[in-house]
Amino acid sequence: MTISLPQVKTMYRAVVNKDSRFEGIFVFAVKTTGIFCRPTCRAKTPKMVNVEYFATAKQAVAQGFRPCKICQPTKSAGEIPDWIKPLLEQIKLSTSTEQPNLRLTDESIQKMGIDPARVRRWFKQNYGVTFQCYLREQRLDFAAQKITNRAQVTSTAFESGYESLSGFHQAFKKQFGQSPGTNQFQHTITIAYLPTPLGVMIAGTSEQGICLLEFADRIRLQIQIERLAKLFKSRFVLGTHPFIEQLSTELHQYFCGQQKRFSVPLDLPGTVFQREVWQALIDVPYGQSRSYQQQAAVIERPKAVRAVAKANADNRIAIVIPCHRILGKDGKLTGYAGGLWRKQRLLELEAGKIKLISS
C-alpha cells in the first residue's frame, strides 16, 4: 500500500526548521552522502535538490541509504540512548534514597565517561530545560513532598541541598507559585516523557489514573497543563508511576498495530457533557471514523455539533481517547492539536496500512 506523504515543499521546510511535528511522518535522505535522517536532525541542512523523502526508515534502508549517527532515525523520537542511562540511574537512585542534594558538575560527569556538553544538549532537546534546572526541579519536588508530609521547612531546605533558607524559599515559590510554609497542594500529578514513533509525548497521572497524554510540541500544551493543575489543585512531579509504565507498554503495542483498546485507568475531571463526549470517543471502533455530526447523534445531542467539537478539543488524553478518529462532514482531516499529519498516520496505522513499530 502507498503511504501518503506531505508535499515536497512542506517536507523540506520541516527539515530546514527541524520541525518535531513531522517526526514519524517521513525521513529524508541526502543523495550526496548516502545517509538518511529524521526531520529534526541537527546536522547541516542539505540543498533541496540533494534530498529524497521516504515514509519510513525501512524504505530508506531498502534504497541503500545508511541511518545518520547523530539523529538515529531508526529509533523512536525521545528514546533514551544507552550513553546517558548511567547518569539517569544515578539521579533516580539519589531521589529514591531521599538524598536529592546530589551535585553533578562537569567534572563528575566526565569521570563517568560522558561528555557534559552532550548531556546539556540532550536535556534541552528532550526535556526542554537545562540539566542543572532538571536537577533543581528534582530537589524541589522532593522538598514539596516532604512539606506536604508536615516535615519542618528548615530541615527540608538543607536536606534538599540548599545552603540558605532564603534561596530555598525563592526557588520554591518560583517553581510552585507559593511559599513552602503555605504549601497546600491536594494532589500530585506524576509526569514523564514517553518516546513514540511520532514524536515525544508527555504523560501525566494522578493516583486514580492517566489524566494527560499529549505530544510534547502540541499547540497550547501549556494551557492544557494549567487547566489540569487548577482542576486537581495539584503540583507536577517528574518521575515514574505504575500507570505510566502500563501506558508506555500499551502505547508500544498500539504502534505495533496490536493494541486496539487501552485498559490503563483514566482520571477525567470535566463536566457531565465533556465526559459523555469523551466516552463516545472511546467507543468509536478501532479502524473506523465518525464526523462531528455523527458523534453528536450518538450521544443524542444532534444540535450540539459545535459543543461536541469543543469537547473533543478539550480532550487531554490523545490516542487513548481517540479524537483523531473524528473527521469533517466531507471526510477530510480537520483540526488536530498534535498536527494533521500525525492524525493521518494514526488513521493509516489503524487501517492496517502501516506499522509504526515492528513487533
Helical content stands at: 40-55%
- Overall mean pLDDT score? 82
Using only C-alpha atoms, the radius of gyration works out to 22 Å
Percentage of β-strand residues: 5-15%
Largest sheet: 4 strands, mixed
Strand order of the largest sheet: 3-1-2-4
Quote the distance from N terminus to C terminus.
19 Å
Which runs of at least 5 residues are low in confidence (pLDDT < 50)?
A: 149-182
By DSSP, the count of extended strands is: 10
In terms of structural class, how would the helical and strand content be classed? alpha/beta
Number of helices: 14
Could you outline the blueprint of secondary structure elements for this entry?
Elements: H1 8-17, E1 27-30, E2 35-37, E3 51-54, H2 57-62, E4 66-67, H3 85-96, H4 106-111, H5 116-127, H6 131-148, H7 153-159, H8 165-176, E5 187-194, E6 201-205, E7 210-215, H9 221-232, E8 234-238, H10 242-255, H11 272-282, E9 290-291, H12 292-298, H13 305-313, E10 326-327, H14 340-350
Parallel strand pairs: 2-4, 5-8, 9-10
Antiparallel strand pairs: 1-2, 1-3, 5-6, 6-7
Helix pairs in contact: 12-13
What does this protein structure show overall?
- This protein has 359 residues and is α/β, with parallel strands linked by helices.
- The chain is built from 14 helices and ten strands.
- The protein has helices at residues 8-17, 57-62, 85-96, 106-111, 116-127, 131-148, 153-159, 165-176, 221-232, 242-255, 272-282, 292-298, 305-313, 340-350; strands at 27-30, 35-37, 51-54, 66-67, 187-194, 201-205, 210-215, 234-238, 290-291, 326-327.
- It has a four-stranded mixed β-sheet with strand order 3-1-2-4. Strands 7-6-5-8 form a four-stranded mixed β-sheet, with helices on both faces. A two-stranded parallel ribbon has the order 9-10.
- A hairpin with a 4-residue loop joins β1 and β2 (35-37).
- The longest helix is centred in the middle third of the chain and has 18 residues, at 131-148.
